[in-house]
Design a protein that fits this description.
The chain has a 5-stranded mixed beta sheet with strand order 3-2-1-4-5, with helices on both faces. It is an alpha/beta fold and 333 residues long. The two termini are 28 Å apart. The longest helix is centred in the last third of the chain and has 32 residues. It contains 9 helices and 10 strands. The chain is globular.
Length: 333
Amino acid sequence: MITILAIESSCDETSAAICRDGKILSNVIVNQSVHEKYGGVVPELASRAHLQNIVPVVDEALASAGCQLSTVDAFSFTQSPGLIGALLVGAQFAKSLSLALDKPLIPVHHMQAHVLANLIPANKPGFPFLCLTVSGGHTQIVLCEDFLQMKIIGQTLDDAAGEAFDKSAKLLGLPYPGGPLIDKHARAGDPNKFKFPEPQIPGLDFSFSGLKTAILYFIQNEKQKNENFVQQNMNDICASIQQRIVSILLNKLRKAAEQTGIKNICIAGGVSANSGLRKAFAETGEHLGWKTFIPPFEYCTDNAGMIAITAYHKYLAAEFADLSVSPSARAEW
């Protein structure tokens, strides 16, 4: 048996998970509410909260899995990308355990882990598969040919889809984190009420900066005519914004599937929890004959379960690191 303790601390979730032979036994996630009043994540406060949370989170993950620290075969952590102070907390904790117990250390790239979150459920894709990975900091289309063999074939040239959701929510006066609130309002709105532009970016790459600007000017212009416009049309505005972001994502994913001929299609990352994206993705897959896969909600947002499943396959490939390994805010993979 191979038992791995994984730690995720790249942003504002402190998480620990236990993986045994490729099965996630526990996945504990603690969120940080301290950032809400600032309208975004404050790096220094995130680091302090990780320091407070990491010991009880790891203890709970071990207890929930019925596992003793002495029986863990390897320790894993998110190496990159993320907030450097936050990453350091998880990295140093994992390195300390590795040193103290003389067990292997496995660094994991956060975005690679989002892709492999699709391998956690019993219903998992076969290789090769495409994965649309959408989060607050990244938007990518990844061709996954094996457990650790991946290639980015499309990515955002500027802003990420998750950022477009959150910045749009801020323009509408919604509190942080705004993406889930746009999703909530959108369920009661008309997605065709307002028209927002779709960027004409060649190839499989994305761009969301122009869309954000268009939404800003739209709101400013309408509020000049009626200062209560946003409040009176919140559901329809949110539905229209969400519909456009989702269409941008799926149009590129459809193009990638056509170019590669791959029918196993996945989505992952925090934005994959969006109900509008999940529904449209399933409908598109059914229409085009795809086999579609979406991780359960707890493995969509930042979590240690996805770090653990990635570390398990890295363990099998003997991809270990020594104690000189350091986290990086922006390392490529």
